[in-house]
Specification:
about 475 residues, mainly alpha, transmembrane helix, about 80% helix, ion transport
Length: about 475
């Protein structure tokens, strides 16, 4: 067989990455804007309600991102199958990912329904714990539609059909803001529900998004017939998705758990510190959504190259998307250092008596966040590339060691043993992310590693054959 080469060129790779990646970036930013809107509006409603939403929203996100492992497994598997022209396999793995996601949602619902005792056991302030518990008892029901949306977004992204994903997410942002405005503050004749109003808005938005994206998939991709005989089990594809998806879910859990643990530790410092942490985390997370969208694009492009057996194209594209992500990281570093107070001030009512203290704490946290922009971008990009070549188990181990053994330990030591407070906790986050970035990048790029062994067609691990389902 003649040697496979990359003929696209740097400009071609950049164009394809941006064509695929910008709608994904937009959809991630828009999806995050729903949470951001909750934080903005609740910050203006009251610091205690904001702290409750930070705590409750963090727990919801931890379980949601863990369950998203099966959805994220869809992206490289569908990209590889599409690149190899295997339409039946596209249908099978996507359908079983939906099954696994719904099963996961059912298993974690009790955590949301009985969240308050769990939060009390974590040493949170009783008022904040009560607010978060009430929020989760309603918000928790959004886990199933949210995971269905995530699976179908991954499916469409792998097929490079991302425009509708962006538009439906933007519509969800507008709907969430409107329902929040009505129910948090009691506008337009609606009851004033505070944090519970934000939970109702989130549930309504996730259900509406799910119905919209299901309708689009049925109409736009009839050849895959995802929902025809949806009830029919496919054991082989089920196991294939599970084997690839559970390490991704645990890797996600390790990373988001790092930030969740930081929220718990910030809660030990008090309500104001937790609110400042929540605001700073919201701001830092906006920039992370850009890197996540580019990482998803890297996964799809790597999966397509894998299906075609084109190692040079994979490596060239990986280099282009990594540099693009790092350039954006440098820009956000400057923003966090130069304009911390204007960014933080967007979230707090000027008349709130706690405003000054929140801004003072938040300024230090954003300075720490600037330090980990580069490493955060590098680690999520490496994860995207490794998932594109369907390498998930070793990255899971690397993530667990980096985020928890290194990151949490240093956060606790700096924050409490040395008395550095919130800034010390955030510097520990940077240390954990930095360790992950180095180890994951080395795994992908090391001579003779995964990026250098894909010059011939590669069969996906455990790939199911045939056209069952």
């Amino acid at each position: 067989m003649p040697e496979v080469t990359s003929r696209i060129g740097t400009a071609g790779h950049l164009r394809r990455i941006l064509t695929l990646g910008l709608p994904l970036v937009g959809s991630h930013v828009a999806q995050f804007a729903i949470t951001l809107t909750d934080a903005l509006m609740l910050g203006w409603y009251g610091v205690a309600d904001l702290a409750g939403q930070v705590l409750g929203g963090t727990l919801f996100f931890v379980l949601f991102i863990m369950g998203s492992g099966f959805a994220w497994a869809v992206m490289p598997m569908v990209a590889r199958a599409s690149g190899a022209g295997e339409d039946a396999q596209v249908r099978r793995v996507t359908r079983m990912a939906l099954w696994l996601s719904l099963l996961f949602a059912a298993l974690v619902m009790p955590v949301f329904l009985f969240a308050r005792p769990l939060l009390d056991a974590m040493g949170q302030e009783p008022k904040v714990s009560a607010l978060a518990g009430g929020y989760l008892a309603l918000q928790g029901w959004a886990i199933a539609p949210a995971l269905v949306v995530m699976v179908l977004k991954s499916y469409l992204a792998a097929l490079e059909r991302t425009q509708f994903v962006l538009w439906v997410t933007l519509a969800a942002v507008a709907l969430n803001a409107a329902v929040n405005y009505a129910l948090i503050f009691g506008n337009w004749g609606m009851p004033e529900l505070g944090i519970i109003g934000a939970a109702w808005a989130s549930l309504a938005v996730n259900i509406a998004s799910m119905l919209a994206i299901i309708a689009y998939v049925i109409v736009s991709t009839p050849k895959h017939a995802l929902f025809t005989r949806f009830w029919k089990p496919d054991g082989e594809a089920f196991v294939t998705v599970f084997r690839l998806g559970w390490p991704i879910g645990l890797t996600n859990l390790a990373e988001v758990g790092l930030f969740a643990a930081s929220s718990v530790m910030m809660g030990w410092l008090g309500t104001v510190a937790l609110a400042a942490h929540g605001i700073a985390l919201q701001i830092a997370s906006v920039s992370f959504m850009v890197h996540l969208g580019l990482s998803n694009a890297a996964t799809v492009r790597a999966g397509n190259a894998m299906g075609r057996g084109n190692g040079p194209e994979l490596r060239h594209g990986a280099w282009v998307v990594t540099v693009l992500s790092l350039v954006f990281a440098v820009a956000t570093m400057l923003l966090f250092v130069l304009l911390p107070r204007p960014l933080l001030g967007l979230f707090i009512d000027p008349a709130d008596p706690a405003r000054g203290e929140v801004l003072a704490i938040g300024t230090g946290l954003l300075a720490a966040a600037a330090l980990f922009q580069l490493v955060d971008a590098a680690q999520v990009m490496a994860l995207g590339l490794l998932r594109g070549v369907q390498d998930t188990r070793v990255p899971m181990v690397i993530a667990g060691i980096s985020y928890w053994l290194i990151g949490i330990t240093i956060s606790y030591v700096l924050g409490f043993t040395l008395g550095w407070g919130g800034v010390g906790i955030w510097l520990g986050l940077a240390a954990g992310l930095g360790a992950a970035a180095v180890l994951l990048m080395v795994r992908f790029w090391r001579p003779g590693g995964l990026a250098w062994t894909l010059d011939q067609p590669v069969k996906a691990p455990g790939a199911a054959k045939g056209s069952s389902g």
